[in-house]
Amino acid sequence: MSDLVPRHLKETGPPIPGIIGSSAPMENVYRLTRKVASSNASVLLLGETGTGKELIATAIHRLSARGSGPFVKVNCGALSDNLLESELFGHVRGSFTGAIANRTGRFEAAHTGTIFLDEINSTTSVLQVKLLRVLQEREFERVGDTQTIEVDTRVIAASNCDLREEVRQRRFREDLYWRLNVVPIEIPPLRTRREDIAELVAYFLHHYSEANNRHVVHLQAEALTTLQNYDWPGNVRELQNYVERAVVMAESDEMTQELLPADVLGEKPARGPRSEGSDLDTLTQDVVHHGLTSDDDNEDGLYTKIVSRVERELIYQVMQSCNNVQTKAASRLGINRNTLHKKLKEYDFEK
Fold first, then answer.
1. Could you tell me the pLDDT band of residue 284, with boundaries at 50, 70 and 90?
2. Percent of the chain with pLDDT over 90
3. Do 251 and 306 share a structural domain?
């Protein structure tokens, strides 16, 4: 019977349910996913935002012996350090303002199952020490408590940036990196598996047609060529967004070229709102031209105003280049995510 099985399926196994793509880069992901699932080893998923790291983490859990146990997901980049510690490890009543009752943490909730720590690169050094202890000793204390809790929880972590570089820059603990990086799996960006685009579009067309009571089931050949020539900085998540939009806007049963956004068509996208005279080069030249320093700030605050505008413009440009992913932008700016969040609020970026 085994001779009837295609060679590539013997080596990689069939595609994993719920994950679309049969390209060579994805076959390697399937092979590693199936192989590591049968173990209890920690797994580090690496890949750009929108590549599907959470889907692979879910597949590893479901294919493992822990598949009947809980699968707990935590986005480490979505919470401040103090809140994240409480979220992961729980807390006891009165341990901090607002702690009106005991709370079970995510590690405890994932006992006998798997915990998925997304955006692990956004954690601070203090929390990294506590995560290292859980990985090594399988124990922790709730915030404000002295009682040690033991857990049997598998850890899958994910990062959208190069953790080795984070270690070199001393933004991520080397010992924690090696504890997490027992089995690394790199999820390929969409631009390196363009042959999967047709299959992905077909899946999303069917999904969003059903969700929106529409019947958009065909993809125009010209539109497919355009999609395959685009670089997809937002990866599969970006493609998913555009297909959903096309399904909603389509006048027929076909996704056509006209339904694609300007950036996919190669047209220059509209620039976001900019403050008057906020060109970065111009502002920097203003500081140099006036020979201003913070010591020379006058009562009108000219130096402060110019520097603030330079800072705002820099953050704007970096956020644009990082597709508004705050964790990635903070890393590129050399600041932590909480500081960036405060700056975004200060400069009213939502508006």
1. low
2. 58
3. no
